[in-house]
Amino acid sequence: MSLSIELNKGQTFPLGASVLTNGVNFAVYAPLAKQLYVCLFDASGHTEVLKLAMNNNEGGIWSLHITPLAMGTLYGYRAEGEYQPKKGLFFNSQKLLIDPYAKDLFGEFTWSERHYGQMPKGTLSTVNNAIDIPKSKVTQLQPYQGKKPGHSWGETVIYECHVKGATARHPSIPSQLQGTYLGLSHPSFIEHLRTLGVTTLELLPVHSFISEQFLTAKGLQNYWGYNTLNFFTPNKDYLVTDEIGEFQQMVTKLHQAGIEVILDVVYNHTAEAGSDGPLLSWRGLNNPGYYRSVNDNPEVYINDTGCGNTLNIDDPFSLKMVLDSLRYWVEIMGVDGFRFDLATILGRTPHGFSQTHSFLQAINQDPVLSQVKLIAEPWDIGPGGYQLGAFPAPWREWNDKYRDVVRRFWQGQHNMLADLAKRLHGSFDLFDHNHRGPLNSINFITSHDGFTLTDLVSYEQKHNEANGEQNRDGHSANYSFNCGVEGFTDDLKVTSMRLQQQKNFLLTLLLSKGVPMLSSGSEMGHSQGGNNNAYCQNNRTSWLAWKDSQRSHSLIRFIDDVLTLRKQHCVFKHSVFLHDSDKRFSVDWYTEQSQAMQESDWHDGSKQFLMYSLRDTQLNTALLIILNASNVAVKCQLPANHDLSVWRLAISSVDQAMVKNTEQFEVAAQSSWVFTANLEDECNGE
């Protein structure tokens, strides 16, 4: 690196390292620091060649413009100031800090005592941590230029997957691309998504993340990625050539195939853990601004995440960082939306959750972010943390009540019909009250967190021993069932029933009002051996086990068939709840004798049979769905069809199902059935 450089005060906007025609501008927010430095490193990242004092500006932003300086320069920040934890101050100039706005990182992170601000006995640490921390890297991608698919919520079918786990074992993808961003955009994986009928890929965290120290001590890794190191940089373990532009390439290829990309994002906490955690970035620059602490006790963090710290979204610059990050991933990286982990935190004020929180208002008025897909995980472990149904439009929400009710119904529990009917038709009790519709509900049976679909019907107990926590971690209330045998079996009767029950779940999910979400592997019988918390299993437990003949798996064909039915009926695109006054669509509920359901039927706790029709008077079509969760067959009479043609069996969870007499037939135990009338072409609108 040339030492013949020119230094100028620099600009305060934008934050981070900006490549200009005559050099690089650095800007960082650290209002309580006494001095900030930009530290430049050689190309190896091992040697610090310059430590340059930055200039303090109005508002607490430090800046420096360096000429000449090229793309690819490696750097970090050091901050001088008080180290007084009781005051919430953690300045230590011996700690090299990652730029919160870094767009790229270089080098590996290694856990060591060097990252901590003080020694075990409470004395200030004077050990330099630069050898163990990635360096920020000056880079500047061009804005995304591709055409985005722009699927409406009524058309959307989400497929949640892990970047590595989705393709790490895919036999048709070249080995160097397996488990990478480019693996997800390989034609073989895209063909699989299109065969299923998926419109939208939801990726587990792709922001740079690290494994927690307690995991590495046990020889494990944070596989899921909910431990963010930087909010702007793609996780580089998923790159082939170390060039972050590969993420853009992936998005472009998926968009060209008509597939959207949504990111699971973690703006609720960071990898710096509790107040006794390491100094990696934010804590060493502006701890009181970036993290929430107990009133009058800034040394003690509020831990609404269960991960040691909680991001202080009330601070204007913390809020700005989150919004700037979101816009970066939309405008530069090209993504189509976000699923917000523990989203209740982002709307919590000192007085509790608020629909008018500054974060939610900022999103709503932002011309970029208000136009993308926004999904909340509407709960956390903080006070008033469960807020399903409370987010404002245009937010969508993960609906765990849908998940649990459907699981409990097919598990064979009694007293489920009334709740099941609500969930099947968009959960009006949760969303209608604040002027939202059925498409605000993200319906799912399984996700990355919990049993896989196969394990849901194969295990009644969790088996998380491999996580190293004596099977204490993970949920215990899974509403699962094993069909008679715990775990793997080659008993054909058991395996046949497990397949039938998986089809029951899938049929229910894909023909419910709301937005369906499939977890990866549901279509191919993926099992995690009963592990319902595989967050630290970066191995074959989590990686999908593809086979050369995978495309012929019966569940793949089944999902495709059911989604084809969904697309043929406009009622699933209908954005408002069905009421008696609806001029086009109607829903009717029947007993097994084809009589209208009465109040007493809904409250008969022993009933495990539900039959209902969905009619479209404009297209003169109808759909009849029958769900029998009981362990005995039920004699059933189909309802009269009035001016429509006869009912025709469209699909069933029972293999080779046939119905010769639609006036009277036997609905097999633990089975689901769909009949259609006057079905023609795919619905093209409402």
Automatic annotation (TrEMBL):
Domain Glycosyl hydrolase family 13 catalytic: start-end pairs: 156-566
Q: Which InterPro entries match?
A: GH, GH13_cat_dom, GlgX_Isoamylase_N_E_set, Glyco_hydro_13_N, Glyco_hydro_b, Glycogen_debranch_GlgX, Ig-like_fold, Ig_E-set
Sorted keywords for this record are: Glycosidase, Hydrolase
Pfam families this protein is in?
Alpha-amylase (PF00128), CBM_48 (PF02922)
Keyword Hydrolase assigned to the entry: answer is yes
Lineage, top-rank taxon, reads: Bacteria
Q: What is its EC number?
A: 3.2.1.196
Query: NCBIfam families annotated for this entry?
Result: glgX_debranch
| Family to which the UniProt record says this protein belongs | Belongs to the glycosyl hydrolase 13 family.
PANTHER family, per database record: GLYCOGEN DEBRANCHING ENZYME
> Could you identify this protein by its name?
Glycogen debranching protein GlgX
**Which gene codes for it?**
glgX
